[in-house]
Amino acid sequence: MHGFSFAAPATTTEALSEASDRSAFLAGGTTLVDLMKLDVMTPAKVIDINDLPMRGIQRGRDGITIGALERMTDVALSRDVANLYPVVSQALFASASGQLRNMASIGGNLLQRTRCDYFRDVTTPCNKRLPGSGCPAQTGENRGHAILGTSAACVATHASDLAVALVAMDAKVRLQSKEGERLVALTDFYRLPGDTPSVENVLKPGELITQIHLPRLSWARMSAYVKVRDRSSYEFALASAAVALDLRGDKVLDARIAVGGVGTKPWRLPQVEEALKGKTATEETFTAAAAKAAEGARPLSHNEFKVVLVQRTIVRALMSVRGVR
Asked: Does domain 57-111+159-215 have CATH number 3.30.465.10?
């Protein structure tokens, strides 16, 4: 681990004044400290933000607002979150391990880095870690890598389960910097790798996520998160699906679908949503709609199975929602 200076400001203003393009904010530390030990991340200054006023889960007329420093376990156990947005609670419980969920912050979870082995191994090239060095995953070990949103520069998957659920729910993040605040839809927050995979989101240097807002959606109660992985806990998704259905009897009025484990960012599927609208909520309907999920997919040598897997994961998630009526 490289040497660094340390600060623990008491206010958000102080934290922002300490920040620069060579600093990193520390919340739960479950990603940052891990990557610092590997020398993947080498900030010159670490700014502990745990004393900042960025906590609380507040239910209002327009939805639920979650402070970025809330821990994953606390959000997953929130009665309002579990009852009104079960997909979010389920995604959190499917993440990491109990010990990590107790430590990790909501904001930090959204900013966690990919688990691509090439990214985490400083002895190998990686365009995300060292721009211009190459992407060995293109022809190397790529079973767990992305099939959607990839480029010649990067095929790494986004790691967060929570982000997939939040994207499905049209969540927004509030960002704060020295210049002020802004509200950004989570679908617009993450960037495709293109030629610059090292730039993963729209955060400016020294900018903080302070809140996450879940907009009011009455039928979000009819939602679910399904995660397929190699083992039942402490494992990242090979494919996952966050779904919600607005049903009138057996008819689908509206739908929300996003998938993980297959994209370079949390992947919303408007074409699948449109294919469900106005149709009868049957397994056959779900299967036909889910077939559109892999449109534009570019599988690699070891992960072509994800094309079918993500389709089946969506169907399984939709059937689980349909079954609770």
From this structure: yes
